Amino acid sequence: xxxxxxxxxxxxxxxxxxxxxxxxxxxxxxxxxxxxxxxxxxxxxxxxxxxxxxxxxxxxxxxxxxxxxxxxxxxxxxxxxxxxxxxxxxxxxxxxxxxxxxxxxxxxxxxxxxxxxxxxxxxxxxxxxxxxxxxxxxxxxxxxxxxxxxxxxxxxxxxxxxxxxxxxxxxxxxxxxxxxxxxxxxxxxxxxxxxxxxxxxxxxx
Length: 205
Hints:
Blueprint: E1 13-17, H1 21-32, E2 36-40, H2 46-53, E3 58-60, E4 74-77, H3 82-90, E5 97-100, E6 113-117, E7 120-124, H4 131-144, H5 149-165, H6 170-179, H7 183-186, H8 191-203
Parallel strand pairs: 1-2, 1-4, 2-3, 4-5
Antiparallel strand pairs: 6-7
């Protein structure tokens, strides 16, 4: 059983071993989190090469030896040699998180399919059992989201700040926070004005 968590990887050191399509997918995800990425591989894809040229990934062009270990916070093993991936997995440093593309079930972490809509992040994982099914489920969820979900989230963020900063008792605050997530509030074109009036009236009680 795995515990879903959100990790802040900004500035964290990540070593990626392997330069193929699997490595490329993980590198693109790590870039979005502003991780410091070091890649080791004898060959890389054209897409990774572009990232290296842009200075977004440091690259060491060489073969990795089976007796090597790496001191980074996160280690991504994505070579096309399953045996090498397994050996490097067991060479891990203490307290190092490792993702083994050859054996996702036993990896310390998984990269779930992620759906990002503004401030909304939805992840779907099958714990490595079927990444394709996770993607299919994520697509189904996306089709159920409101078309203006990003705008709704901006309103909710603003509204929450207004309510939290107002001189309201805890009961009124909780009541307003509960009301603003209802469809009649989210779909109201005058929701901002109505909320300010509601907050003002509640502050007078």
